Each structure stands twice: as structure tokens, then as C-alpha cells.
Amino acid sequence: MALGTPGMTFGQLAREQLEIEVTCPNCNHRRLIDGNTPRLRDRPIAGARFRCEKCGSVGLPELGKQRLWAKRLAKHARKLP
Question: CA 48, 55, 14: angle at the middle one, nearest 5?
């Protein structure tokens, strides 16, 4: 499915190795949305509302590439004796 289609789900976005980071304009709180969680996996992205956990204002989403270095670092650390 092409990016930006109305039926795209959070799970499909995660499979494309893309993530959504939501920023609060009032308190600058940032949160990454994990599209692989069972609760969000099948929900469509279009029409989703994001609220700040700290102040409750409307969050501003940004779409970008996943930061895979943390996963690679954890994988490397598990291999160390």
C-alpha cells in the first residue's frame, strides 16, 4: 500500500520502518508511537488524534525513519561475553 493512503494502518507504517513522533507545542514533550503494539497495529492513521500525556494539549505528529541504531546496539550488547 502506498504511503499517505487513507486506509494505511500503524502496523503497515511500522513494517515500512517508519515511525511517528508526536511533539506537544505547549510543553515540548516528545513521544514515539510504536505501530507494532497490538492496540494500534490495525488502527488507521488517518483521523488519529494525539494528546500530550503531560498537559493534554493536541500533539503535532511527524513522520520519519525509525531509529534503528538502538536496536542494533542492543543486539550487539547481547553478543558480548
Answer: 35
**Quick check: is 46 in a domain?**
yes
At a CB cut-off of 8 Å and minimum separation 6, what does 57 contact?
24, 25, 26, 27, 51
Query: Quick check: is 49 in a domain?
Result: yes
Number of domains in the chain: 1
* pLDDT tens per residue across span 49-69: 888 888 888 888 877 765 655
Q: What is the pLDDT of residues 19-40, one digit of tens each?
A: 888 888 888 888 888 888 888 8
- HEC states along the chain? CCCCCCCCEHHHHHHCCEEEEEECCCCCCEEEECCCCCCCCCCECCCCCCECCCCCCECEEEEEECCCHHHHHHHHHHHCC
With respect to residue 48, please indicate whether it lies within any of the assigned structural domains: yes
